[in-house]
Specification:
With 324 residues, the chain is α/β, with parallel strands linked by helices. The protein has one domain: Spore Coat Polysaccharide Biosynthesis Protein SpsA, Chain A (Alpha-Beta Complex). The strands form 2 sheets. A 5-stranded mixed beta sheet has the order 3-2-1-4-8, sandwiched between helices.
Amino acid sequence: MSGSDPRRPPLLSVIVIVYDMRREARRTLLSLSASYQHRIDPRDYEVLVVENGSPEPLDPEAVRSLGPNFRYFFVEDASPSPAAAVNFGASQARGEYLGVLIDGARIVTPGMLQLALDCLRGFPRAVVGTLGFHLGPDVQIRAHLHGYDRRVEDENLAGIDWPADGYRLFEIAALAASSREGWFVAPFESNCIFLARELFDEAGGCDEAFDLPGGGLVNLDLYSRLCRLPSSPLITLLGEASFHQIHGGAATGLSEDALVGQFERWAEQYARIRGEPPKAPEREPLLIGQAPAPALPWIVRSCELLGAGQREAPATEPELSSDG
């Protein structure tokens, strides 16, 4: 394990949970590096990579080579759920603010970290979330049935010359189920959540009662509980997002029928723990950000979706929230 300069604690600690995703995590971590992220001083943040017992782990030296602000941890005897790994990462974090990426297969856009940090400095009790997209022409539970796989994904990424311009990810992606209504409605969950450490503690962190493989609805639960905290503005970053790569997680590769059955098991556990079914946040988000050109079609689409009618329950198209 190695860390950044202990004499200058970072402002933001970004926790990334990884399980058996060497190909995907390398891109995710590159997208969090100072060579990719815009405007942010690498001394202002650290990235804590928590490997949750992977049978084929990342090379710790390769992780550390991304910068002195990258730290690597391997969890022995890990739970099949990422909940405890998130809480462990929070316990090791040195920043005043936390970022939680419960699924290390998600590439992020280049302005995300600095914009999130700006929001947290301006709104100390804010819950800052982001929209989720899936790389590919459709959500991956459908796209893979029509030939979308890692090879096609690699070709698509090469076709936009990634990582030269991270915003071009919008050109080769589709809205995730959790974010299917676009930027003007709070998503059912966020796979990149930013908040003050004290707010994470106030909410009780990730609930380790969500112990199913992949965590079930643990991420939806965390976001939902954070959104209910008093005096906590709900912010969605405009023009920034995460992009899920296809890989062999707890839900990726299942048929739609099988995934709906999986979601029903997750929802049953959620109801046992919370005493109510999962539901979307009943709040309108404050949008902060800007509109990079590749995101403009999705902003237009968000406007169209805004008047499309009442929100649906998330069960019809479950998100791959924590499929590591």
